[in-house]
Amino acid sequence: MSVGSDRLDLVVAAVSEEAPGIRHVRMRRADGGALPPFTPGSHIVVEIPAGRGRARTLANAYSLTGEPREPVDYEISVLRCPTADGGAGGSEWIHELAVGDPVTVLPPRSSFPPIRFARKHVLVAAGIGITPLLSHLRSHARWGHEVEVIYLYRDGMGAHADEVARLGGDRVTVVHDRASFLELLPERLSGQPIGTHVYTCGPASFMDTVVDIAVDTGWPDSRIHLEHFGIDALDAGDPFTVTVTDGPTFEVASGTSLLEALEDHGIAVPNLCRQGVCGECRVTVVPSDDGGPLHRDLYLSEEDKASGSCLMACVSRALPDANGRAHLEVKP
Ligand code: FES
Predict the structure, then answer these.
(1) This prediction's pTM
(2) CA of 276, closest atom in ligand 1
(3) Which domain holds residue 176?
(4) How far is the CA of 259 from the centre of ligand 1 (A)?
(5) Which of 76, 109, 142 delimits the end of a domain?
């Protein structure tokens, strides 16, 4: 199965063990040609072939950890999650890659960029959540931006810990246990200069904690930025109704995606990742002045989302209007 005409066919150039259970993979064009540059915080979608227990081709998003400008390689670091591979996983396949193996990816997409005119950037990561923030830090180090890093990981298990220390120097604080982190974070988030933005990535419960502490210490939502690990971080969502133009109207229940509901009604929508990262299941929405799509994907641009004229059917839902009615009209 293809993930689109703009897919890139790469080969593995190097693999290494970044930390226990975390594989670092470098990929490049077979002819050594240039790769598209990317914005710090970007990810690529890797196509994971069916087979070896996978019923269908998967498409997983991984943050790019390497150099964003004129990259020769795309680099990712992937935590092995053996239990996930029967479902939406694929990390086992990444961990089995060897030098010379072919890999198909979609070009980089940005859904977690640094804020351009921020006065200061505070990066808060846990575990493998350091990966999208590493390219942020790389960029801040190059341009001399004011930055502070708080990195929580189990002692001896820190991915890219040496690189983070080299790039951030004395602006990096490492903590190895949750109690120390909970003691440290309120203090660090208090008294930051106006115009500072905070960025966080890690397990959902970790990011919830960071957001709670940030809000408690007076940070507005507009200066708090989160990077989720795909659909695992999403809740079941509220029910809503959908009308298919020139077709039926039906309810999409909590825990059922719009994509599944359309399929249940015999309406086929191209799809691949079913995690809001590949862009295959884009559906046209009839814009409305009230309510509209509740976007939960990592694919659409901010402009696309603001237009209210499309959504990714595998993860996104409907916002209630002023009367509390959540409804969309779509043209699959
Ligand atoms: S199937 Fe990939 S974004 Fe929906």
Answers:
(1) 0.83
(2) 3
(3) 120-228
(4) 9
(5) 109
